[in-house]
Fold these 3 entries.
Entry 1:
Amino acid sequence: MKKGRALSLLSGGLDSLLATRLIMDQGIEVVGLHFITPFFGYQKKGQEARYRERWRALHGIDTRIIDVSDEYLRILRNPRYGYGKNFNPCVDCKIFLFSRARDMMAEEKADFLVSGEVLGQRPMSQRRDTMRIVERDSGTEGFLLRPLCARFMKPTRAELEGIVDREKLLAITGRGRKPQMELAERMGIRHYPAPAGGCLLTDPEMAERIRKFFNQSPQATINEVLLLQVGRHFQLSEDVHLVVGRREEENERLMELSREGDTLLRVHGIPGPLGLLRGRTDAEGLRLAGSIVARYSKAKDQDRVEVHYGEAGEAFSSPLFVTPASEEQIAGLRF
Ligand code: SF4
């Protein structure tokens, strides 16, 4: 066989890992591309070296972790092919990621691209007609190889040119997971996440919150999207949001995500959550925020609770006395 080099889109799930391994097992050099956005893979941000090392140690794959958040937000605002069941723009997402991979081919001296897609596995993005659209619109026709279902697809250039042995590619279709599990077993792959577990845009509750926010604020930023993923959310008025941490890690995360102009609140001297108030508000709004924060603290049954607040990055130096909010008061404010 001719020597070759491929770029493989690694989602972090089993299928793309199997597809990558199938090509590597043919003696072809493969570089994994792992794209991250605030909706998938973002926990790797700042930890790229550790994850690369992990993939190399576990699977022998050299990987690039690439943050495409800004461009992704633009796509999410107005996807040409619409959304799936939740807020997932799967067809546009694939077109975008495959285009990015295609753009990297020259620099990485790659002959072709690899994807772990399986014909018929997903209702929207893995139908044959959609797969063709994705190839056409991403400019990857002829050099996007899907090793798991390749025997059902037209031979790609890598097969025709003798870089890849088509006989060793597979013919998996449909939604079942059994063939993939068996293949993983044969390949000795034990560490992999549950299927489709990685994209928040397919999580009904989270996707709904994100959709609602985008409808109100089409220019939503990365920071705002990350904030939507933490704690309990309340909308106090059109552009005032309160986020209340549910656990210590969430309180810490809120602290990290707070920015100039935000107000942070917490109950004084009694264990309780951190509240992050964003948007211009008056004394009444601040009091309401304090009463919600108090409701989720150990002082929730007291009549009068002392809450301290301050600007993000500054001390909690201003006191406020509130009565913890009742369920009726907050029911209509949940976001
Ligand atoms: S599930 Fe999420 S990551 Fe996967 S194609 Fe759809 S939008 Fe993209």
Entry 2:
Amino acid sequence: MLSFYYTLRSPYARKVRILLDELDTPHTPVELQPGTMEHGSLFGEEYEEMVPNMRVPSIKDGDQVVFESNFILAYLLQNYPLQGPPKGPPPLAPEMVRASHQWQDNMVLASIETLLNSAINLAFLGRFGVNAEDVPYLRREQVRCQSCMDWLEQHATSEGFVPGVFSIADLNIVCALQWIDERNIMPWHGRSRLEAIVARYADRPSVKANALVYPA
Ligand SMILES: N[C@@H](CCC(=O)N[C@@H](CS)C(=O)NCC(=O)O)C(=O)O
């Protein structure tokens, strides 16, 4: 049985939780309780020996360990395609990127990943008391996030990044923007297409059932 390693607060892990739900993939969830960065390893030595990027999420399927959330999504789509009726509407996209729009779709995924990675840097450093306004590189990270969101707004439609389906890009952007909102990382509203995509999918059962969870 496939094991899925995650923390409840991770927006990257949330992407995988949603896809596991969409695909009804049988799996054993393994929730990790992060320690502190100051003392020892964050997720435990055994986990960090298995996963070289020392991050969540990851999966282990037999002997195959897969890390990096978008690679995990690609692995699941390839190895555990949907058997039953699709959830939706609209139905889940059957592939990460369309063969006919490989480059465009990959650029969208890369931009969302850059957005989330930069936003996570800002959040982590904020937790250590660093004020982004005081550090030129962090100001650049803020500008980079806004730049990616502007570009994504231009490349989206109000129905999503790929007409007619719940695409993996849609899944990515919903998890990124809802996390940015919930953690109050930066302003992004006012981009009407991105707002429409988040609103369109916020109540999708797999998205709603796998909300980010924060301690009270
Ligand atoms: N690019 C990675 C990013 C994953 C990531 O940054 N996860 C965070 C939790 S939200 C983490 O494990 N951080 C711990 C660390 O950076 O050491 C992915 O897509 O899976």
Entry 3:
Amino acid sequence: MAKERKKPVAIITGGANGIGLASAQRLVSKGFRVAICDIASDAIAAAAQAIAATGGEVLSLVNDVRSHSEAQKCVASVIEAWGQIDVLVNSAGISQPKGIVDITEKDWDLVMDVNLKGTFNWCKAVVPHMLRQKRGRIINISSVNAHTGGSPSAVSKFAYAASKAGVLGLTRGLAQELGPHITVSAVCPGLIDTQLTAALVKKRGAAVEEAAPLRRVGKPEDVAAVVEFLATVEPNYITGEVIDVDGGLWIN
Ligand SMILES: NC(=O)c1ccc[n+]([C@@H]2O[C@H](COP(=O)([O-])OP(=O)(O)OC[C@H]3O[C@@H](n4cnc5c(N)ncnc54)[C@H](O)[C@@H]3O)[C@@H](O)[C@H]2O)c1
């Protein structure tokens, strides 16, 4: 009798809300078991409940991506529960709206620690398992601001853009280092309607609808669809790639 194939496992940081949650739900609908990690303990419980209600297998891990040792511990607990990690989606992130005159050293360190070091922490934690498995896909959520530096009206300014540009460098460097069995790619969302951007969408949504060739503000599902593609496409000949999901707002 043919051996039953185990369901693939995805870890999603920032999985309690927005793009991370939509990605977790999308991957569950494609047969994945998902471990969602987030600092927001209430939201993560609600997200896990919503995923389980659709029949999904879910682990919830309350975690601060800034902590190197916590990432190691969380990954060890996923391995203990499910024995494998097929996909890592790094979606945890924060904005930083201050300009150079107002920003403090503490503000700079925080956005770098969450957005860039957090991505490093989780890549570092999963890679030994992916190397052992000779299989793995890492998908980092960056931002179109990494290319543009943001616009004067953007929710975030230069420090956020710098952290997200760092994520692109990390993505490309790891893609070179981790082939042939592990792929590393990035997704750069434009303006997507989530709790992170709610105020901006209210203020600037109409302008984006007018300016973007696709004439609407993005939804978390728009990004999740691309995450699913990168997580599942077969055969796969893509690594180190950066995909913009911004309705064509920034066409380079
Ligand atoms: N919404 C947009 O327009 C947009 C555009 C470009 C890029 N992004 C990026 O997409 C990713 C997801 O953003 P979103 O819009 O879904 O926002 P969101 O606020 O809905 O989700 C982000 C999640 O990250 C979690 N998080 C924050 N700090 C954390 C920490 N230290 N440790 C663990 N979890 C933490 C939050 O609790 C939240 O659940 C972020 O990296 C963001 O920078 C979003």
